[in-house]
Amino acid sequence: MPPYFGVGLGLGLLDVVPVSSAPESMVGRALFYFEELDLGLEEFRALLALQKDYYRVQREGRLQFAIEGHLARPTAQPALGSEELGEHLEIRAQLFADEEARVPAFTQRVRKLLGVDRWNLLVSLYMEETRRDLLRLGPAIATAVASAFTLHDAVNSQQVDARAQFPASPGVEREAPVGSGDGVDREGYGPWGETDSHAGSAEPAEPALFPVPGRMPF
User: Fold this and answer.
1) Residue 48 included in any domain
2) Which helix (H) or strand (E) covers residue 101, if one does?
3) Which pLDDT score is estimated for 166?
């Protein structure tokens, strides 16, 4: 997800291990595409300052998480009663939730820092990057689900051969990533200004930061 790199391909339904989805860096992908985004020195400094702020808050939460885990350890002496143990575990659970909950707020900060055009361009770059990765992984994914499911091409509905490399869909041109101003809703990620209720408005609509359900590209 822009503007950071995800923690893995197993997102959402496939996240069966309770590991935080919060990234270590909030600005990794934005920095990776610094040339495409034409970032200047001031933008670099602002992104790094934001990352420093994010790391400081994240680190503090994780230290407290570790302390609460130590206090709730099974070998604690004297042994904790069920009520006291439950209090420590509830604090740990809240700290875990806080780590994931702060990601949207920091994502909003990065979005505002980049501005309309650069944010839309970053979304386009992310979508193209994801399509390329899934195109290469297609045969492996098809093989993994072959025992219970079949995969079909999104354009012509033909079943995908798990033994073959995925070709580009016939008749579909892969556009180069573009910036804002084209009015394209990039698979539900919503560049600024695409909401109908804001049509004709001088002020751009708030973009959707996350995919619309059912339209996830990964």
Assistant:
1) yes
2) helix 82-145
3) 52
